[in-house]
Amino acid sequence: MENKPRSTIQTTVDNDSNSDDDIGPVIKTKSSFSRQLTNLKDTIVEKQLVERLEMYGCAVLSIFDMASDTIMIAKYNASGRERYATATIVCLLLCLTSQVLNTYLQNRKMRRQRQLKEQLLVLTLIKPVIDIWRAANHSESKREKGTLVDPKSELRMNRNVEMMFEALPGTVIQMAAIVSAKEIDSVMYFALMSSMVSAAILSTYTSLDWNTDKENRKCDPDFFGYVPDGHVRKIVVFLSLFCASMFNLLVSSLACVLLHQRGMHVVVIALGSELAIFLFLKILQRDILHWAPIYGIQAYFIAALGRITVKVLGDWTFYVHFRHPQEVGGAHLAFGSLCTVTIGILFLYLVDEVEGLFEKATIVKIMIAGIGGLLLSCIVFLCSIDQKYISMFISTQTGN
Fold first, then answer.
1. In the list 2, 38, 159, 240, which could disulfide-bond 380, CB 3.0-4.6 Å?
2. CA separation (Å) from 114 to 120, 215, 294?
3. Which of residues 48 and 168 earns the better pLDDT score?
């Protein structure tokens, strides 16, 4: 056995120690990376769970709103106010008919068996739950071959229909029933709040969900991304947007009901004129056709229906996703909010007396509070978002 000098042995030991010192940071780095990867996976799983809970929460709220409408139909009939019951039934039937039309357009290129199955889901009133399940379990939102749009877009379309033909009309009907009632109980207030909260939550959640979607931010970073990353600011954005939607609904529905007491023509002039201006400008800008891939004569019918739907929802619920150039557009949405405030102020001058239990002074206070709450909520919302997206809320860009 060869004997090595002591100096050589010491050098070898030092080298081995240095090697251990070099390996140590590598092991620590690898361990740190593993922990970060595990934390990332946990975060993704937690986010997906939260998103699914939010989606199913919206579904429960929608079903609850429909249940409250059914209860109010029975209550209106029992109290001899059949016209409110009839109006509510008509709105529910319109909502169901529109969902049937949406489902046909979504699956018109699929086999007849699939079409019948989808229509059966609509008629049995479980289509909203199925839509949410599909959107929650298709994280990449890939469009199935033969369908019109991906599951997430289909869910949004059906939610818009639900708001347009159920939640918004339900709010106006229940507001009218309360204002003109000789006796008011807590159930009527509860039904009104149910419709308002349902519309506001659906509008707010859909806008924020589309804005925070990774694919949307990647495809169109100039439009999607106004929601900041901080948890506190996200909560402020959500609450301010929800409050803006609620106050917008309050002002619009109350003004509509009270202006109707002066005649239907006043309501048509106040609400219809701004909608007519919007459609005229869209035609003038050659931007009337909708983004959905539908062609031929039916494209113009769907375009008109789609444009009216997004305009009404934007004006009544402060639906900020519709500031997209392919929908209402930033300038039109801002102008619609300004018209809402104007109509609320117009009411203060046009309405002399109020039919029902409420005095005009009480209604005026409610209207002033609604207008003030709307303006304050909008200011807080605009101050809380990422400021580089402010211009998109007044943009004149079109979908061309």
1. 240
2. 10, 28, 20
3. 168
CA distances from 346 to 25, 127, 176, 316, 369 (A): 72, 41, 18, 16, 15
**Kind and range of the H or E element at 255?**
helix 231-260
Confidence at residue 141, expressed as pLDDT on a 0 to 100 scale: 53
Rounded distance between C-alpha atoms, residue 99 and residue 300, angstroms: 19
CA distance 400 to 329: 12
Contacts of 279 (CB under 8 A, 6+ apart): 288, 304, 307, 308, 311
Confidence (pLDDT) at 4: 47
Contact at 8 Å (CB) between 344 and 248? Answer: no
User: At residue 209, what is the residue type?
Assistant: D
Judge whether 378 and 317 are in contact, CB under 8 Å. no
Angle 236-238-244 (CA atoms, 0-180°, nearest 5)?
100
Give the whole-angstrom CA distance, residue 303 versus residue 311: 12
The three-state secondary structure class of 242 is helix
Residues 90, 84: Cα–Cα separation, whole Å = 10
pLDDT at position 400, please?
67
More confident residue, 203 or 7: 203
Q: Does the reported pTM lie above 0.85?
A: no
